Amino acid sequence: MEDRLVILLAQQKVILEKLHEGHHGMSKTSHLLNTSVFWVGKNRHREDSLVSCRQCRGTLAMWGNTSMRQRQPIVSSEQPRCPFQIVSSDLFHHNGKNYLVILDHYSKWYQVKQLRSLTSRKVISNCDEPFSSFGVL
């Protein structure tokens, strides 16, 4: 508890609403609460808040004293038959720097590039290089 904020009664509802804004569900909201703040009864307040939230209630199989969610079916994606048929990319931020990662699903080849700018023009130009290197463009 030494690294969590102790929240006074007057601010507990506000803090819970802020942590719940993204409608993350029981597990994520619990994690946010348990790693950042403390007050007596916060788990009961969290559960009451989620049960009363229409959007979150839709993701719970049952409510009351349980945190079980509805099971979602596993959806398998199409398997590529050749390199660069299915490619994924994402942007991420680490240690104050922005990066682009590109992954070929067939070969599992990936490339991580540091970006100086997050404009669409810069992101697209950084995608062009690896694709043209492999004759995709």
Please summarize what this structure is:
The protein is α+β, with helices and mostly antiparallel strands and about 140 residues long. About 40% of the residues lie in helices and about 20% in strands. A hairpin with a 5-residue loop joins strand 4 and strand 5.
Description:
With 137 residues, the chain is α+β, with helices and mostly antiparallel strands. The chain folds into 2 domains: 5-57, no CATH class; 87-133. Helices cover 38% and strands 19% of the residues. A 3-stranded antiparallel sheet has the order 3-4-5, with helices on one face. Helix 1 packs across helix 3 (42-52) and helix 2 runs antiparallel to helix 3 (42-52). The chain is elongated.
Give the topology, please.
Elements lengths: L4 E2 L2 H12 L5 H11 E2 L3 H11 L1 H4 L29 E8 L2 E8 L5 E6 L4 H14 L4
Parallel strand pairs: 1-2
Antiparallel strand pairs: 3-4, 4-5
Structural features:
elongated; single chain; 5 helices; 137 residues; alpha+beta; two-stranded parallel ribbon
**Fraction of residues in helix:** 25-40%
* Secondary-structure class: alpha+beta
Biggest β-sheet, characterized?
A: 3 strands, antiparallel
> Cα distance, first to last residue?
54 Å
Shape: elongated
Instruction: Trace the largest sheet across and list its strands.
Output: 3-4-5
Mean pLDDT across the residues is 80
Secondary-structure element string: EHHEHHEEEH
Q: Strand share of the residues?
A: 15-25%
Low-confidence stretches: 61-69
| CA-based gyration radius | 22 Å
Number of domains: 2
Number of helices: 5
Instruction: Compute the number of strand runs.
Output: 5
